[in-house]
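INTERNAL TRANSFER SHEET
From: sequence group
To: structure group
Subject: TetR family transcriptional regulator

Please process the attached sequence and return the structure record in the designated field. Keep the field labels unchanged so the import script can parse them.
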Amino acid sequence: MARTKQQQREETMEALTATARRLFAEHGYGNVGLETIAQSAGVSKGALYHHFSSKADLFRYVLSTVQHDVGEQVARAADSAPDSWAGLLAGCRAFLAAATDPEIQQIMLLDGPSVLGWEDWRELDDESSARHLAEALTGLMTDGLLATRPVEPLVRLLSGAMNEAAVWLAHSPDPKSDLAATMDTLTPMIESLRQPTS
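Return from structure group:
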């Protein structure tokens, strides 16, 4: 059966995105050209430009998919925890564990802020991880496990700490050991936020 133009467009987008993601992860943004991406994806450069106006535009799309994937990993970890408090800790742990994945490190933590700029990078982060964190904290306050306070400052403080730790892990010469130490430090930090029981 002949493919429709819509199916062809979707297949081209998928091929370009998957190929660009792999090449950006393996070689870094600055070492990958559009010609290489198009050839590796098996499409013409014209087809690439039909979907993306520039390499930066393509990278932004790839980065958004990576951040979405990380956000989904965090949400799955939190949802599988036995309760909402354990879910917060599990979500934070999942985010830090994701930060040690070489693909995520290169695209999201090393190239992302420098290619897009801090403001655009933060905007994408807000759409993925920060939104899940705000929902989790709001739920904990509703359940009485966390003292009622303005959510946005708490999201910024925790998100900033998590992102800083993730960037540090991305540059670590011993990420396995440093991740274990970070996880050990994370637990009492999160526990300190818990509402004292009377």
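Handover comment: The chain has two domains: 1-52, 54-192. The chain has nine helices and no strands.
Transfer complete.
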